What we know:
Layout: E1 23-26, E2 33-36, H1 49-56, H2 60-68, E3 77-78, E4 84-85, H3 88-102, H4 107-117, H5 123-164
Amino acid sequence: xxxxxxxxxxxxxxxxxxxxxxxxxxxxxxxxxxxxxxxxxxxxxxxxxxxxxxxxxxxxxxxxxxxxxxxxxxxxxxxxxxxxxxxxxxxxxxxxxxxxxxxxxxxxxxxxxxxxxxxxxxxxxxxxxxxxxxxxxxxxxxxxxxxxxxxxxxxxxxxxxxxxxxxx
Length: 168
């Protein structure tokens, strides 16, 4: 069976970019999207689903779920046997999805973001998705700070008790 990819990753415009510090800007598609750099060498034939999942810190099942739920920017390339192959841009996009999920962004919002970036002229809608998420994250931070203040008060209380009892 021939395992060559008809459209090899390095030949796809979305896989061509220059290395830089921080995130890369995907300016080849309808919407420019800052993508995190992974610093992983991706072979011309791309990575298998297992390799791609490992690079992104996902399980294979999670990566398949992300695909099913529309969280990927584009479907991965497939070799003649049907096996998925992921190029550098696929991995950078997935790393961005992992980052968004780690910030607590709901799957529905990541899906909306992915759908919006597939179309030109949706920057205002993308901005709205991120502004709404920022508000949720800021509320979580405020809540976490209140929780931390309560923990610190308990620590001070018990330090005072331990000191009053003469314990070390």
